[in-house]
Amino acid sequence: GAVVSQHPSWVICKSGTSVKIECRSLDFQATTMFWYRQFPKQSLMLMATSNEGSKATYEQGVEKDKFLINHASLTLSTLTVTSAHPEDSSFYICSLGYEQYFGPGTRLTVT
Amino acid sequence: GIQVEQSPPDLILQEGANSTLRCNFSDSVNNLQWFHQNPWGQLINLFYIPSGTKQNGRLSATTVATERYSLLYISSSQTTDSGVYFCAVVALSGSARQLTFGSGTQLTVLP
Predict the structure, then answer these.
(1) Nearest-CA neighbor of B100 among B10, B30, B1, B18?
(2) Record: contact A91-B41, CB cut-off 8 A
(3) Cα atoms found within 13 Å of the Cα of residue B79, Cβ hemisphere only
(4) With 90 as the cut, is the pLDDT of residue A102 above it?
(5) CB count, 10 Å around CB of B101?
(6) How far apart are CA B48 and CA B13, in angstroms?
(7) What are phi and psi for residue A61, nearest 5 degrees?
(8) CB B72 within 8 A of CB B61
(9) Minimal Cα distance from B45: which residue of A?
(10) Are A93 and A36 in contact (CB under 8 A)?
(11) Burial class of A63 by CB neighbour count within 10 A (0 to 12, 13 to 18, 19+)
(12) Helix, strand or coil for residue B53?
C-alpha cells in the first residue's frame, strides 16, 4: 500500500496564529487526497477533498476560509488552520488512494 | 447521507479469546473497509471488503452487501490487538471514494 507521511506529528500553537500541516505521499501519485478531523474519543469526520491543481471540496459545516487546502503536486497536500482557536484542537489525518491509506496524523493543540 | 453503526462500542477480552465486531450500514455501498487505530492514532487498513469474505492471519472479515452488514472476526486475541476498530464505507450514491466512518469499537485485550 501507499506510504503517507504527515508533518508535523504534533504542534502546540497560541490562539490566533496559523498552523500548516503537510501530507506527503512517498510512493504514490495522488490526484485526490482527503483530510479528516478526529476529536478525542470520537470517529473520523471528513473535512475536505483535496484535488491536485484545483480547488478543494469542503464538507458541509467546514469553513473553507479557516481551513485552507493546497494540493500543489501529486505528492503533497497542505492544510492550513488559520487564526486557530482552542476548539480547533484535534487530530488531523490525511488519506489517499482508492483503498484509502492514512497518514500518521497531526495532533494540534491550541492554547 | 449514509449511516454506519458499529457494535459493540466497547469490548474487553482476555488474551486468547475470540471476538466478532459488527458494522451495519443504511444504504448500498461500493466500498467497505475495516481499520485498526492504534494507541498512537495511526490507522491501519485491515481489509478492503465491499462483499465476500477475506482472511489475513488471525483476522477475517465478511460483508453481506445485500443485507447491509459486515463482520470482523478476531481469533486468539493478543494485547497488541487493543485499539479502536473502525468500519468505513463509500456510499454507492455518494461522491467517489469519500469514506463515512462508523463510531468504532474500542477493544481492550487483557494479558
Answers:
(1) B1
(2) yes
(3) 2
(4) yes
(5) 21
(6) 25
(7) 90, -5
(8) yes
(9) A101
(10) yes
(11) exposed
(12) strand
Strands A90-96 and A106-110: antiparallel
Which secondary structure element, helix H or strand E, spans residue A76, and what is its range?
Answer: strand A76-81
B interface residues, A as partner, C-beta within 8 Å: 33, 35, 40-43, 45, 48, 86, 88, 95, 97-104
Q: Which three cell numbers stand for residue B60?
A: 477475517
Q: What are phi and psi of B65, to 5 degrees?
A: -65, -35
DSSP helix/strand/coil, B93: coil
Cβ neighbours, 10 Å, residue B105: 21
Which grid cell is B17?
Answer: 479469546
pLDDT digits (tens, 9 = 90+) for B26-49: 999 989 999 999 989 999 999 999
Q: What is the pLDDT of residues B72-91, one digit of tens each?
A: 999 999 999 999 999 999 88
The verdict on a CB contact (< 8 Å) between B40 and A104 is yes
- The confidence band for B96, taking pLDDT boundaries of 50, 70 and 90, is low
